[in-house]
Amino acid sequence: MxxxxxxxxxxxxxxxxxxxxxxxxEKLEIAIQLEKYGVDVMEAGFPASSYGDxxxxxxxxxxxxxxxxxxxxxxxxxxxxxVYEAVKDAKKNGVHVFLATSPIHMEYKxxxxxxxxxxxxxxxxxxxxxxxxxxxWSAEDATRSExxxxxHIIEKVIDAGANVxxxxxxxxYTTPLEYAQLITYIREHVxxxxxxxxxxxxxxxxxxxxxxxxxxxxxGVDQIExxxxxxxxxxxxxxxxxxxxxxQIRKDVxxxxxxxxxxxxxxxxxxxxxxxxxxxxxxxxxVGANAFAHESGIxxxxxxxxxxxxxxxxxxxxxxxxxxxxxxxHSGSHAFKQRCEELGLFLSxxxxxxxFKAFKDLTVKKKEVxxxxxFALMMDSSVKGLFPHYRMETLQISYGSNIIPTTTIAIxxxxxxxxxxSATGKGSVESVYNTISRIxxxxxxxxxxxxxxxxxxxxxxxxxxxxxxCEGEVSSGRGIEHDVxxxxxxxxxxxxxxxxxxxxxxxxxxxxxxxx
Length: 516
Ligand code: KIV
Ligand code: ZN
Prior knowledge:
Keywords: Amino-acid biosynthesis, Branched-chain amino acid biosynthesis, Cytoplasm, Leucine biosynthesis, Manganese, Metal-binding, Transferase
Structural class: alpha/beta
Mean pLDDT: 90
Shape: globular
Oligomer: single chain
Strand order of the largest sheet: 2-3-4-5-6-7-8-9
Helix content: 40-55%
CATH class of the largest domain: Alpha Beta
Distance between the termini: 55 Å
CATH superfamily of the largest domain: Aldolase class I
CATH topology of the largest domain: TIM Barrel
Largest sheet: 8 strands, parallel, barrel
Low-confidence stretches: 506-516
Family: Belongs to the alpha-IPM synthase/homocitrate synthase family. LeuA type 1 subfamily.
Subunit structure: Homodimer.
EC number: 2.3.3.13
Bound molecules: 3-methyl-2-oxobutanoic acid, zinc ion
Number of strands: 18
Number of helices: 18
Strand content: 15-25%
């Protein structure tokens, strides 16, 4: 069977989602899981965009062994240099260079004539080729480009040394039939096309990213690009897990195979959702909480008699298993460590100690601690000790009907100073947030607040996700606690702490040299 490469861009295009700001440590954790999932190529970031991203890509490149690690670059030398510095230590590396080819992008964005665009693309690929064996070139906005021009520029960049040609549907504009026809056209009109792999990259503005990607596979592309859970700018990218499961279930139609370990699907989706704060809709195909729930009596009856009456995907196939009770309050650190390892959690000694303490604290409040609880605790930034800038010491809230909610909070700074304040609010969450803003003496406004529970039951952990605007800078954070208000406070502080990390990183240039 023909093999299709899976190119994951969760850590680059996915991270461009509004309000997502991953710490380098979190990007590394996702990269490790993506490797377990079996992606052939992972686009770890855009190293020239910030020193934080440069560092994240570098750490990923030094850790990942099986997947190829690539970085994104505009068609400028300094971007390609930054990718080279970031990924040079990878076992398998590469660069992804792009340039827009549609009339609207060339005229208004690039302000270049088509001839100049061809020259710039060729120069960028030739330059990249000096450092890399693997050069992927993308014609940004390919689906709104003139097909003869596209064929012409692709021929030139292949001559310049590109190994993979990507045809992005940058604005999610194309349709399955049209995209398949474009791919066939390129195959038939680019004489040297046999020298490269062809790749498809779809966005979901019209809700067709997965269908368009599948049409591209039927049209013979060698590589499919997308993100886990379909996260990405605007309506997002094609959901890789949906494409991969469709290829498996409808092997009879697509007749291709991938390197993906399907059993890692749910774990990968959960990790990306928790770390990015992008909650997966309940009814989402493959990974939504209701994807395998049967509600109506007729369906339940059918499934009980024979699962395949109403279920085309076997939940075990994508790694969904019952949320069994794993440990209780009498469990010791040894059993806990062993269980974490079985769950595939990567813990340093320090993290292991912190996670065990968080687990013990939880067993006081919650009788049954499940795998999902442990997984949620692991996602808490404080367990990993990632953001030491501000730490909540104490939280006290008085709340009741007909009284004004009042909060008192003590926060410890990195220097050991304890800051304490009280404030009121219209509701208890607002009083918590007003108190934190007062302590930090910052103008902070709340842009988004979401809450969900980790498991079922009244003693479940609360997971809060917030997006804030702190003096013009947008940041997101999450907090996981048994108590809803404590989780809310932690999420707010987490968002502020992520900004202080960002500020620290922006003091460096892309090459890692301090500039100010
Ligand atoms: O959608 C797009 O065009 C991109 C390019 C950078 C490849 O993500
Ligand atoms: Zn894209």
